[in-house]
Amino acid sequence: MELLALDGFLLKALVGLLAKLGVDELKKSGWMPQSYYVRTALLALKRDDLDQAVRDYNLSVEKREPGEKAKVAYEIITCAIDIRIAKTEDKLSELHRALHPPVFSVRFWRNLLAGNRSAANERLRREEQGCREALEVLGRLKSQLKSASEDKQH
Q: What is the pLDDT of residue 27?
């Protein structure tokens, strides 16, 4: 009798696991309703995950024409990327000013005369390189978002 109860439990667990795997595969391949992907894209944006937001938006318009909600989500995600790009560019210009001060500034002469400034300048250069790489990634995300949206509108 216990063996039948255990078999029933295992059967239910196996069916549940297979159903979950099937639904997960449907989600990954873009077969869920467009509103599902728009909602998950906006939730990813709320978590500050731009990559996932762009992926989910692209899944929402992959198999269907963008609806009103998808168009609004596109604008919101684009604005979030633009804000991130602007902040990164501001940080990059701040780092550039710190690395290359004007000739008639006190900082220029301190950097010129101080021998141990190379470690600080190296740290600033690494941070500047990180900002440049972040700008490249943000540019790619924006182009992925635009290409997916333009493909469906034409």
A: 66
For the chain, give every domain's residue range: 1-31, 33-153
* CA gap 128, 124 in Å, rounded: 6
Confidence band for 25, pLDDT divided at 50, 70 and 90: low
CA distances (Å), origin 105, targets 40, 95, 96, 142 = 50, 16, 15, 38
Cβ-based burial of 5 (10 A; exposed 0-12, middle 13-18, buried ≥19):
exposed
Backbone angles phi, psi at 135, to 5 degrees: -65, -40
Sign of CA dihedral 125, 131, 134, 136: negative
Separation between Cα atoms, residue 7 and residue 95, nearest integer Å: 65
Which residues, at least 6 apart from 44, have a Cβ–Cβ distance to it below 8 Å? 50, 52, 53, 56
Of residues 105 and 98, more confidently modeled:
98
Q: Quote the distance between the C-alpha of residue 114 and its chain's center.
A: 41
Give every CB contact of residue 58 below 8 A, 6+ residues apart in sequence.
144, 145, 148
